[in-house]
Design a protein that fits this description.
The structure holds two protein chains of two kinds. Chain A has a two-stranded antiparallel sheet. Chain A is mainly alpha-helical. In chain B, α6 runs antiparallel to α13. Chain B is globular and about 70 Å long. The chains are: A mainly alpha, B mainly alpha.
Chain lengths: 74, 480
C-alpha cells in the first residue's frame, strides 16, 4: 500500500516517541540506587557498578547510531 | 624538568604554527574569521567539541575529586557527559540549520532574532559572558598549577598569565580555524597523555588490579556510594546527571561550534562517537585519583587538584611525566582558547555596529581585553580552597544552565514569548543566587537543578500570560 504523507508523518512521530522513551529509560538506568552501598571487587579489582557504568555509557554509541539512522534526517 | 621545558617549547611552537597557518587560510570576513565559513567536517568538529569540553577539570579537578570521594566521580561525569551528546541533535541540528539559513554567528543573535528582542539578546549575552569568565580563569589557574609543579621557580600566577598570553596570540592570529585546528592537536595530545599516565602509574603500583586492591584496602568507601565524605547522595547524583545534559550546550564555546559544521553529518558523527571517548577518557583521571589513596600519598586539604601531577611524577619516567603535563596543559588551553574566542565573537558581533573589517578588529581588541580580565581574576578573585570544581559549579554551571529553557523554547516552542524568556533567565539567576545563599533550602539538590526547574516553569507561565508573536512571523521563521 502506498504511504500517504499523513501516515508517514505519524510513523515518524511514533518513532520519535519510541526513541524518547528509550533514552528516558537509559537515563533512569543511570540512577542506579539499587547499587548503593555495594563495593565488593568484581572484575580487575573494580566493583560491579563501575563496569555497569562503563557499559551503560558505551551503549549510547550504538543507540545514537540507530537513533540518527531512524530520526535524524538531513 | 628538562623534558617538560623541551615539550613545552615544542608544544607552544606547534600552536603558533597552527595559528599562523590558520591566519593564512582565513579570509577577512566575519563569517570566515568567526565561523571558518561553516566548513568543519566530522574529524575537526568531533575533536574540537571533545577538546573544548575537556578542560583543566578533566585532568586536575576530576582526579582531585576522585581522590576525596572515589569512583562515583566517574559515574556522574561519564554518563552525564555522554548523554549530553543527544543535545547535538536537539539543539545543535536546529542551531546549525537556522545559522545557515539566517546567517547567525553567535548564540545571542539567534535568541534575539527569534524573539525580536534586543533586550533578550543582550541579557543572553550578558549571562554567557559573566558566567564564562570565571571558567576561563580556572583554566588559567590550572595552567599555573601545572607549570608551578614542573618549574618550581615559577609562581602559580606567572604560569597562568604566560598561558593566557600564548592563547591570546594564536587565537588572535587564527580566529575560529586557529582555535579549532589547535583543538585537534590538543585533543590528540590529551588522549595520548592520559593513556600513558594510567598505564605507567598502574605499572608503578604493581598492575591495574593490584592498584585497585591497594586503594580498596586503604579506603573502601571510595569504591562505593555515597563515597568518601558521603558526597554522593541520591540528590547530588541526580543533579549532576541532569546538569551536564542541559549545561554543556549552553557553554558559548560549544553552542557556537554548532554553527561551524559543514553539514549535519559532521554533527551526527560527533554525537555517535562522543560516548566512546568520554567513557574511556574520564576513567583515567578518576583511577589515578583513587589509586593515590593506596599509594600512601597525603595531599593537604585544599590541594587535591595536585594529586594527578604528584602521582604521575612519582610513578612514571621523567619524560612521560613531562609529556603528561603537556597533555594537561593542552586540555585546559583548548577550552580556554575556545572560550576566549566565542566571548570575543559575541561581544564584537552582537554589541558593536556591523562594519565588516572593523568587526574583526573589534573582535581582536576584545580578545585582548578579556585576557586582561582573566588575568585579573587569577590574581585577585580565586579561592584555592574551593578547588576547580567548587569554583565552577558555584559560578559557571549554575549561571549557564538557566539559559537552557530559553534556548530550547526558541528552537521548538512557537508559543514562547520574549517576556517569558526574559522572566525565565532573570528569575532563574535570582533563584540560584538565593539558593546558593541558603536563604531557601535546596533539599540536597544542586542549586543549578532547582534553578533550571524554576526557570522552566516561569518561562511557560509567563509565555501563556503574555501575547504570542504574530502568526505570520512564526510561520515564516519556522518554515524558512
Amino acid at each position: 500500500m502506498k504511504k500517504t504523507k499523513g501516515s508517514y508523518s505519524f510513523a515518524y512521530r511514533y518513532n520519535k516517541l519510541v526513541w524518547f522513551t528509550i533514552f528516558a529509560l537509559v537515563f533512569l538506568l543511570s540512577l542506579d540506587f539499587w547499587n548503593w552501598g555495594k563495593s565488593k571487587p568484581f572484575f580487575l579489582g573494580l566493583p560491579f557498578w563501575i563496569i555497569y557504568f562503563i557499559i551503560l555509557t558505551l551503549s549510547l554509541t550504538p543507540l545514537f547510531y540507530l537513533f540518527s539512522r531512524d530520526i535524524w534526517r538531513e | 624538568m628538562m623534558f617538560f621545558i623541551f615539550f613545552l617549547l615544542l608544544y607552544f611552537l606547534l600552536l603558533m604554527i597552527f595559528g599562523w597557518y590558520a591566519h593564512k587560510k582565513t579570509k577577512k570576513t566575519p563569517e570566515d574569521y568567526f565561523l571558518a565559513s561553516r566548513s568543519f567536517g566530522p574529524f575537526v568538529l568531533f575533536f574540537t567539541l571533545i577538546a573544548t569540553n575537556f578542560s583543566a577539570f578533566t585532568f586536575l579537578g576530576f582526579a582531585g575529586k576522585a581522590y576525596k570521594s572515589g569512583f562515583g566521580q566517574y559515574g556522574i561525569m561519564s554518563f552525564g557527559t555522554a548523554m549530553m551528546a543527544i543535545m547535538f541533535y536537539v539543539v545543535g541540528r536546529k542551531v546549525w540549520l537556522l545559522g545557515k539559513k539566517r546567517g547567525y554567528i553567535t548564540p545571542p543573535e539567534l535568541i534575539g532574532d527569534r524573539f525580536q528582542s534586543v533586550f533578550l539578546k543582550w541579557l543572553f549575552l550578558a549571562v554567557m559572558v559573566i558566567f564564562t569568565i570565571p571558567y576561563l580563569a580556572t583554566q588559567a589557574i590550572g595552567a599555573g598549577y601545572i607549570i608551578q609543579s614542573m618549574v618550581s621557580d615559577v609562581s602559580l600566577e606567572i604560569g597562568a598569565v604566560v598561558t593566557i598570553l600564548i592563547i591570546t596570540v594564536y587565537v588572535l592570529l587564527g580566529g575560529m580555524r586557529g582555535s579549532s585546528w589547535t583543538d585537534v592537536l590538543q585533543g590528540i595530545i590529551m588522549i595520548v597523555a592520559l593513556f600513558l599516565a594510567v598505564v605507567f602509574v598502574a605499572m608503578g603500583l604493581g598492575g591495574f588490579e593490584y592498584a585497585n586492591h591497594l586503594a580498596y584496602n586503604s579506603n573502601p568507601s571510595l569504591f562505593t556510594r555515597p563515597g568518601g565524605e558521603n558526597f554522593f547522595t541520591p540528590q547530588i547524583w541526580f543533579s549532576f546527571m541532569m546538569l551536564w545534559i542541559f549545561c554543556d550546550p549552553m557553554f558559548p564555546q560549544i553552542f557556537s561550534r554548532f554553527y561551524t559544521a559543514e553539514n549535519q553529518r559532521s554533527l551526527k558523527y560527533s554525537m555517535i562517537f562522543y560516548p566512546v571517548v568520554v567513557s574511556i577518557l574520564f576513567f583515567f583521571p578518576v583511577l589515578i585519583g583513587v589509586w593515590a589513596n593506596g599509594a600512601g600519598i597525603q595531599i593537604p586539604s585544599g590541594s587535591e587538584d595536585m594529586v594527578l601531577p604528584i602521582m604521575v611524577e612519582k610513578f612514571t619516567p621523567s619524560w612521560i611525566f613531562g609529556f603528561v603535563m603537556i597533555g594537561a596543559l593542552a586540555a585546559l588551553m583548548s577550552t580556554a582558547d575556545s572560550q576566549l574566542f566565542s566571548l570575543s565573537t559575541m561581544l564584537s558581533h552582537d554589541i558593536l555596529p556591523r562594519r565588516y573589517k572593523s568587526e574583526i578588529i573589534m573582535g581582536k581588541i576584545i580578545i585582548i581585553a578579556l585576557s586582561a580580565f582573566a588575568i585579573i581574576f587569577v590574581l585577585f578573585g580565586y579561592n584555592p580552597h574551593e578547588g576547580i570544581m567548587g569554583t565552577l559549579v558555584k559560578t559557571t554551571f549554575s549561571g549557564l544552565v538557566v539559559l537552557a529553557p530559553t534556548a530550547i523554547a526558541a528552537l521548538y516552542w512557537k508559543r514562547a514569548t520574549k517576556y517569558g524568556c526574559i522572566a525565565s533567565v532573570l528569575i532563574g539567576e535570582i533563584s540560584i543566587f538565593i539558593l546558593e545563599m541558603n536563604i531557601i533550602p535546596t533539599f540536597g539538590f544542586l542549586s543549578a537543578i532547582t534553578g533550571l526547574l524554576i526557570s522552566s516553569i516561569v518561562l511557560i507561565v509567563v509565555s501563556y500570560l503574555t501575547p504570542p508573536q504574530p502568526k505570520s512571523f512564526i510561520d515564516n521563521y519556522f518554515n524558512s
